Amino acid sequence: MNKIHVTYKNLLLLITFIAATLISACDNDKDAMVEAEKNQEKYMQEIQQKEHQQSMFFYDKAEMQKAIANINAKGGANLAIIEVRFFKGGYSFIRQSVNTPAKVEMFKFNNGYWGGPSPVNLTIFGTITEEQKQEALKEALFKFDSINFSIIPERIKETIKRANASGIISVTEDSDIIVRAEIAHNGEFVYDITITAKNTARAVMTLNKDGSIAGYETKEPFDPKKEAEKAQQLVEQSRKDIESQRKKAAEKMNEIQQTFKK
């Protein structure tokens, strides 16, 4: 009886030891997870802080002037471009290729260093000959110094102010910001500021070349269902247009046939 009691007691001790070990392991895992989360949060904060420091041209006019001077120095005298963009951490521009005038190339300044030139495929001019493309490119190029970029910090503040006042979108200086001045795919000039909120809603301010405000709008968050519905509507409308054109063509052909019969 004593032997059974001892064995039972030993078994209880073993179970207690295993349970304590498991609890300790769980606690260690929990502590490790908490520590990992803290490290991840710290890492993200450091990245955000570094990105903010490298994007001071968005918030300070003097820093924007430095960025403008940096682009001019890299692009050369009388820099002509089809696109320039300012983004968190840097900026880029696309100019006509020096060696191949019918082509364009990109230079990108990021994390304190220039990269490029990188070839860029031109799509805004369609499938035309190299000579025609070169001629069209001459028409599309605009002088970098013809755009008032020094106004950007002021306009960003105004965009944030309007966005938050709307009650639809909430943005800060740490939100994703993109400023672009470019010749779009349709051949038209575009100069705007886009600030994206965490929920993907966007505040967009359109500017004239002199930096004056041309327009402002708030765009709703990206909704996959709505986008799919829009795409379906476009497909349906396209189908209806094609059907209408076929019907008109058939009616015209019928008219021609009737004329010949007479």
UniProtKB/TrEMBL annotation:
Residues 26-53 form a coiled coil. Keywords: Coiled coil, Lipoprotein, Signal. Residues 1-25 form the signal peptide. The keyword S-adenosyl-L-methionine does not apply. Residues 217-230, 237-254 have a biased composition (Basic and acidic residues). PROSITE patterns: PROKAR_LIPOPROTEIN. Residues 216-262 are annotated as: Disordered. This is Lipoprotein EnvF. It comes from Salmonella enterica. The lineage of its organism: Bacteria, Pseudomonadati, Pseudomonadota, Gammaproteobacteria, Enterobacterales.
